[in-house]
TrEMBL record:
The species this protein was found in: Chironomus riparius
Pfam families in the cross-refs: UDPGT
Similarity comment text for this entry: Belongs to the UDP-glycosyltransferase family.
Stored Gene3D superfamilies: Glycogen Phosphorylase B (3.40.50.2000)
Protein name, per record: UDP-glucuronosyltransferase
One annotated GO molecular function: UDP-glycosyltransferase activity
Chain ranges passing through the membrane: 484-502
Entry superkingdom: Eukaryota
InterPro entries with a match to the protein in the record: UDP-glycosyltransferase, UDP_glucos_trans
Signal sequence region: 1-19
Length: 512
């Protein structure tokens, strides 16, 4: 028996040796993003790590003993004051307007509010009472990186979509506006951009480096001074050199292609779970009896009836009334007096991931969000997309490029176009394409769970600062230096063209 006790104690020591104390700060107030972060943290909790998490939504960790959770109460309200995806789409705002006028204000006002959270303030003012081995943070607002400086530990970045180009550059990954669409707002296919698309990509990079970056730095300095100056940290300091790991919600089969260094890992589909049985008997009965097939329509949690517009609601209902398929539509409310066709069922809440797994579901109409896209691919369902903002345009373009979806414009689509799209996308070949993509996505040498665990354990064990050792590993160094090179090349080109023009004028004058 004593040997059994020794073995149990020995195993426990080995297990706890790999565990760490993790501080996680998630400031982006979208439920789908928070769900992805929860999945990553649940994996680390199951592995034996202790986690203190601050987030904009409460996570369900099933009363796990190693987690302490705090919620930023008003972050969602702050973001809603400034951000409206349908407004972006209707007004056709340029990405620069969205970033400067809306997103930056929302991010930093919310971040200021979040850093004032009483528990975070305790961690800032009484640092000796806490000890952390790793900070896990999002890449949107980098103020949370300073906690790694306070507690002398690495940072792991988790991005619920693809990471912005400046984060890729910090990790030493390849950045090149002529190969990659260096903005999540630009729906271009990497490696297949036209000349004009390349120029657009370059202009975004120049815009970010020379304009938006100034706004970003100013706000960071202001917040750093307000909250961290008493610790002796430089108010302009952003401890990017402490980044050890980048985890992105991407997958190579989907089309997110970029040359990356080893400590950038793609963990797309991690949040997708096995489908559960639908407990809503009315919903289950509707799906079971729809022998001609079901179309599910859901434009995401941030789009409601008011922002969608009554005219668009009527337009969709008109198209749906003409199909012999049943339609399940997630919509927050139905305007009084609106005529609902008998084949359409409107629900205010829907277990979308589970419903997509029902064998009668043949098509998904949605906004192009990456989380729902992964779930549809996992369930083998083709899609029609109506992208509204952010990465949704890129996702929609990639899925159309791969032959698993069709992209449409919410502002300008005609009834006949949507009718034709439904008829086309319910053909068997598109479902076969989706199944093929699913097979490619999951056929990997190591599963996402083991990949996450190994890299996080490695960062904690070796106190790895990957960005310090390999960051800015590119032809011209930092993005700012690259921009100067591009600008110099542009100036030289202009000088050459002007001189060539003058030379031709001189030659003509000599002939006279």
């Amino acid at each position: 028996m004593k040997y059994l006790y020794f073995f149990v104690i020995f195993c426990a020591l080995i297990y706890t040796a790999e565990s760490g104390n993790i501080l996680a700060i998630f400031q982006f107030p979208y439920f789908s993003h928070q769900r992805f972060h929860q999945t990553v943290l649940q994996i680390l909790l199951d592995e034996g790590h202790t986690v203190t998490v601050f987030s904009t939504h409460p996570h369900d960790y099933k009363d796990h003993p190693n987690v302490t959770q705090y919620v930023f109460e008003d972050s969602i309200k702050i973001h809603k004051k400034y951000t409206d995806m349908l407004m972006y789409r209707k007004k056709k705002l340029h990405y620069s307007q969205i970033l400067i006028q809306h997103e930056a204000r929302a991010y930093f006002e919310a971040a200021e509010h979040e850093l004032s959270h009483p528990e975070l303030q305790k961690m800032i003012t009484n640092t000796s009472a806490y000890q952390f081995d790793l900070v896990i943070a999002e890449c949107v607002v980098c103020t949370s990186f300073l906690f790694a400086e306070v507690y002398d530990c690495p940072v792991a970045i988790v991005s619920a979509i693809d990471a912005p180009y400046m984060i890729h550059n910090m990790m030493g990954n390849d950045i090149n506006p002529f190969k990659y669409a260096e903005s999540l707002f630009l729906p271009y296919i990497h490696g297949e951009m036209t000349i004009l698309q390349m120029v657009d990509s370059l202009m975004f990079q120049l815009f970010y480096e020379f304009i938006f970056n100034c706004v970003h730095i100013y706000n960071n300095v202001r917040m750093n001074y307000n909250h961290f100056s008493h610790l002796g940290l430089s108010t302009a300091k952003s401890p990017n050199h402490r980044i050890s790991l980048l985890m992105t919600n991407t997958n190579q089969a989907f089309g997110h292609v970029r040359a990356t260094m080893p400590h950038t890992i793609q963990i797309g589909y991690t949040h997708v779970e096995e489908p559960k049985e639908i407990t809503d008997l009315e919903l289950k009965d509707f799906l079971d009896k729809s022998s001609n097939g079901v179309i599910i329509k859901a434009l995401g949690s941030t789009v409601n009836t008011k922002s969608l517009g009554i005219e668009n609601v009527k337009k969709f209902l008109k198209v749906f009334s003409k199909t012999n398929m049943s339609v399940l539509w997630k919509l927050d409310e139905v305007e009084e007096g609106l005529e609902i066709p008998p084949n359409v069922k409107i629900v205010s809440w829907l277990p979308l991931s589970d419903a997509l797994a029902h064998p009668n579901v043949k098509l998904l109409i949605f906004h192009g969000g990456i989380f729902t896209a992964y779930e549809a691919i996992d369930r083998g369902v083709p899609m029609i997309t109506f992208p509204l903002a952010y990465d949704q345009f890129t996702n929609a373009r990639l899925m159309a490029h791969k032959g698993i979806a069709m992209e449409m414009d919410l502002n300008s689509f005609e009834d006949s176009e949507l009718t034709s799209a439904i008829q086309e996308m319910t053909k068997p070949k598109y479902a076969a394409n989706v199944r093929e993509m699913r097979s490619l996505a999951y056929d990997q040498p190591i599963n996402n769970r083991d990949l996450i665990v190994w890299h996080v354990n490695n960062a904690i064990k070796h106190k790895l600062y990957y960005a310090r050792d390999f960051g800015n590993f590119s032809y011209f160094g930092t993005p700012l230096k690259q921009c100067f090179v591009y600008f110099a090349a542009f100036v030289l080109l202009i000088i050459y063209l002007v001189r060539r023009k003058f030379k031709k004028v001189d030659e003509k004058l000599k002939k006279l």
